[in-house]
Write a structure and sequence with these properties.
This protein has 22 helices and 20 strands. An 8-stranded parallel beta sheet has the order 11-10-9-5-2-1-13-12. Strands 14-15-16-20-18 form a 5-stranded antiparallel beta sheet. The protein has a 3-stranded antiparallel beta sheet with strand order 6-8-7, with no helix packed on it. Helix 18 packs antiparallel against helix 19. The structure holds 1-O-alpha-D-glucopyranosyl-D-fructose and calcium ion.
């Protein structure tokens, strides 16, 4: 057990200790050697407590030791025979159904719209589709608030439409995974309605109800602004909601909840669904007694209370149970969305020997240290380089990682790195080379294959996302309208939720009527139709890259060795498999060329660079945002 007598190095040697310290250092933008140097690493925790007593009080340390001692297991350092599972070689394509394709002219994307684009998806060379939620929902959070897990949202179509879609996907040799949102339900779900209106209902324990008389149960904040408790005056009760007021959290410590969730998962897997992405799955186990969050941690991480539920005491047990009860009987795939989770915790949640999740989404790569999504700043690709080098240096063959930097909750990466339209094409291609050649399983988000960028939303009236609307309200009161809007514009999730750009027509080929979230302005020449005509388009190059990945097993299964890792603005690695060696290299900046490390005899397989004139072999150079893939001789 770690306690005040332990030394810093003892804490850093524990998976949670290392991740918590690394997360603090990341937030404070401090190097790891600050704690790994001999002087500090041998200090007793009691000394650290004394030295930091002005900033960190006794409650902080109680919580710290509770968190660090939660996990007694250690990630597996090797695996006798790592599986060659399909999902380790697959390219996943995430679809946000509301914004993909509208088949019945109501301005909202739907299932038949997706089915009408399956030939396009197959032509991309992707292997599996992930659908964001299409279940019955009042759409307070665009489907991530589910009213009926076994029914399709009216706007999305019918169960027959879904069954036909699944059949058509499988006919094309692709797979389909659904989104499993079981940290919370909609407040309109039958379970919650019965629980709210009948205190003696067996569903009362499905949620976190607390008596109104005792006042606010704790100081936890919601991710969608405001406190995490909703008060119901008629019933004089509070209920917990980490997200919107219409998304009450499920109490997973109540076994019937786990049983019902497992039964529901089996119901969809019985239909032939190939697996699930599990929404904020690391939040399902809350600390007993739901104690107040620590202010210091809350201020640092923005969400007070998070330390009490982002890696809860029963998380690993519940994931193992769900795997045994529901996923394993169908050999189904699972990827967990685990915001806040560190590298070591991620290994404990998804290591092959752990029999819990197959993969996790870790989000530390999405923002520079000390920054968050709503900060307006230029993202430096050298940090993304450091992130993947750190991961691949620490992962073992018991681990496999997801590779992604876009989804329906984040702005577009091209715009985060460089909003200059002149750089859009080479930069978008560079990011796709990285996504499809990095060791791990790539997850592409719709539009990334087109080099999509952020939207020039004009005012809060252009935005629809509950997270942004709630935050705007809160910031407007505190900082005034302009400052509030600037913040929302920097990080709004709606940047990635505008309709898919299928063609150059008025409705972009998405819908014949005004879409639910209009694009504020046209994006001429970047539609699928326009890029299909251009052999040098981002779309055309995406297809070349998925074809390369299919042709060369080194790009799917190969080991990874980094080249000149310390060279700023240069990123390169060699993927190797059974003697096949492929060098991938990048110029991470838009200013000056950098020297290529490719040998004259290396065969160029792909580049996003214009064939430069007299470039002597062996003295190749990478142009700004240049990327190249070579088959090494
Ligand atoms: O997202 C959880 C999550 O981490 C993000 O919401 C993130 O916290 C937020 O965007 C921070 O800025 C999942 C889904 O991906 C998201 O769409 C849902 O809104 C959320 O859970 C609740 O279901
Ligand atoms: Ca529609």
């Amino acid at each position: 057990m770690i306690n005040k007598k332990s030394r810093v190095k003892d804490v850093y040697a524990t998976p949670v200790g290392r991740d918590v310290i690394d997360k603090l250092l990341l937030q404070l933008d401090r190097p790891a050697r600050l704690v790994t140097n001999p002087l500090v690493s041998n200090l007793r925790m009691s000394t650290i407590e004394r030295l930091s007593r002005k900033q960190l009080n006794a409650d902080f340390w109680d919580t710290f030791y509770w968190l660090v001692n939660l996990e007694q297991d250690r990630p597996g350092e090797s695996h006798p025979d790592p599986s060659q599972s399909w999902w380790k070689e697959a390219v996943f394509y995430q679809i946000y159904p509301r914004s993909f394709a509208d088949s019945n002219a109501d301005g909202i994307g739907d299932i038949n719209g997706i089915r009408s684009k399956l030939d396009y998806l197959q032509s991309l060379g992707v292997d599996a589709l992930w659908l964001s939620p299409i279940y019955d929902s009042p759409n307070d959070d665009n489907g991530y608030d589910i009213r009926d897990y076994k029914a399709i949202m009216d706007e999305m179509g019918t169960m027959e439409d879904f069954d036909l879609l699944l059949e058509e996907v499988h006919k094309r040799g692709m797979r389909l995974i659904m989104d499993l949102v079981v940290n919370h339900t909609s407040d309109e779900h039958a379970w919650f309605q019965e629980a709210l209106h009948d205190p003696d209902s067996s569903y009362r324990s499905y949620y976190f109800f607390r008596p109104g008389a005792k006042g606010l149960p704790n100081n936890w904040r919601s991710f969608f602004s405001g406190r995490a408790w909703r008060y119901y005056p008629e019933q004089d009760v509070y209920t917990l909601h980490l997200f919107s007021e219409k998304q009450p959290d499920l109490n997973w410590d109540h076994e019937p909840v786990r049983k019902d969730v497992a039964e529901m998962v089996r119901w969809w897997l019985e239909k032939g669904v190939d697996g699930f992405r599990l929404d904020v799955i690391n939040y399902i186990s809350k600390r007993e007694g739901l104690p107040d969050g620590d202010k210091t941690i809350g201020d640092l991480i923005n969400f007070i209370g998070i330390e009490n539920y982002y890696y809860g005491p029963n998380l690993n047990k519940y994931l193992r149970e769900l795997r045994q009860e529901a996923f394993d009987p169908y050999h189904a795939f699972s990827v967990g969305e685990t915001p806040g989770i560190g590298l070591e915790m991620g290994r404990l949640l998804s290591g092959e020997d752990r029999k819990q999740l197959d993969l996790v989404f870790n989000f530390d790569q999405l923002e520079l240290p000390g920054k968050w999504k709503y900060d307006n700043y230029i993202y430096d690709l050298n940090y993304l380089k450091k992130y993947y080098i750190k991961y691949h240096t620490r992962l073992s063959d018991n681990d496999w990682m997801s590779v992604f930097w876009e989804n329906h909750d984040n702005p577009r990466m091209v715009s985060k790195v460089n909003p200059d339209p002149k750089q859009r094409r080479p930069l978008a291609k560079l990011l796709l080379v990285w996504l499809l050649t990095m060791r791990g399983t790539p997850f592409l988000y719709q539009g990334q294959e087109l080099g999509e960028v952020n939207q020039k939303f004009r005012s809060i009236k252009d935005v629809r996302d509950v997270e942004a609307l709630n935050m705007f309200e809160e910031l407007r009161v505190r900082d005034g309208e302009d400052a509030a809007w600037a913040t929302i514009l920097a990080g709004s999730r709606d940047h990635s939720r505008v309709p898919m750009n299928w063609d150059e027509s008025a409705g972009n080929g998405f819908s014949k009527v005004e879409p639910w979230l209009p694009r504020p302005e046209r994006d001429n020449g970047w539609s699928v139709a326009a890029q299909e005509e251009d052999a040098d388009s981002v779309l055309s190059d995406f297809r070349k890259l998925t074809a390369l990945r299919k042709k060369y097993p080194a790009l799917r299964r190969g080991s990874i060795t980094f080249v000149k890792a310390k060279k700023h603005n240069y990123f390169a690695y060699v993927r190797e498999w059974q003697g096949e060696r492929i060098l991938v290299e990048f110029n991470l900046c838009d200013l000056s060329p950098v020297r290529s490390q490719a040998a004259a005899s290396d065969k160029l397989l792909y580049t996003n660079m214009k064939p430069a004139s007299k470039q002597k072999a062996g003295r190749r150079r990478l142009q700004p945002y240049g990327a190249a893939v070579y088959l090494c001789s």
